[in-house]
Amino acid sequence: MIQENELITFILCLGALTFFLINYSKMRSLPASLIFIISFILFSMGWFFTVIEGIIFEEIFNLIEHVCYICSSLMMIIWSLIFFKKRGGNDFNRDN
Amino acid sequence: MILIGIIDFFILLLTLCSLGIFLVGWRSQFSLITRLSLIALFCIISFYYLSNFLEWSGISDIFVSIEDYIAMLAPLAWFFFIYTYLQKKDEKNLLENQESLKEAYRYTEFYKDLFTHDIRNILQNILLADNIIEQSNDNQNRLDNINEVFLLVKEQVIRGENLISNVTKLSEIRNSPSPIQSVDIKNVVSKTVEKIKNLFEHRKIIVQIPNQKFLVKANDLLQNVIENFLFNAIMHNKNETIEILIQALRYKINQTPYIKIEFIDNGVGIPDTRKQEIFITREEEESKFRTGLGLSLIKKIIENYEGKIWVEDRIKGDHSKGSNFIILIPEA
Asked: Quick check: is B90 in a domain?
């Protein structure tokens, strides 16, 4: 059975993803922006499978959901490492 | 369930590591609000993963009732982080554009001042030539004066051409400066002296040039530097014979090797009170102290070479006997 909260979260993820894709050209100034976006996409996919598991193949989609989360976390840690390796160059969006 | 619990444990661990990496290096990144939104994002998803881990490993389901509500904030935190980042970037771009506009406006005003003062001065001198002819009472006087007038007009035209050349070079330096390379001073000085002598063939000019080869870190604009020095030495000189001595020698400042080039003339000289000011373009009442764009351009070029420039009196203590312009350029 589909949980309302899970569905709302998934819809919010879609909304955020739409915003990111529309502004992707501007986001490219963020180092390793592609990895950051992939991390978010994997997170959103996790929520997609969370919603779907309520309808069909609960155990399989539940496992896939958690696999998506771990991949998202992996991407996030890779992004953090790449980003802070490059921090010696320019300061981004600093408050002056 | 145990497998999923283990997976959730590693998810939590990775997320906390990401947060740790960010906190270690956070001071040099992002604006405050962007940093806070990223920390909030990490905290929210860490909480969600912690709740999942506790539930699936069977330890506790204390957070089960609220985990979905907290998880709803995760996509909002992602969105807010990117939104604030882009907003700050737009503000920064706007400020940079404003600065560019201000600089463009400053240059517009500068060129306008240049046009109204320098060009007007040149045209007035040409008009003066016309007045000399008109005030001649008879044809014989007119014939005697015509050569003098012709030379006056010619000098003003040369002055105008030099001004246009300097404006073009100044614009080039701003937009796309030539690369620095090894340049032979003796070669450049010889070519420039010949060019200037041809332009001012009606004046008696004696120029001594260095006979030793020196290599400096410069570019093709070095010729403009030497041209402007020679031009000023000729234009601000009321003597029958214009004498210019150009000498070069090795010089060191804090073990850094330079070539010191001196341009010593017998012109009108520069008072001590003006020795600092002359490298700044400014309107003056008396045209003999009007140094115009030439010295500003020279200073800009020399600064690009990481060199130095200053002026002294040809005879120490008496500025009226002429000037000694000195430049230091790093030796190649």
From this structure: yes
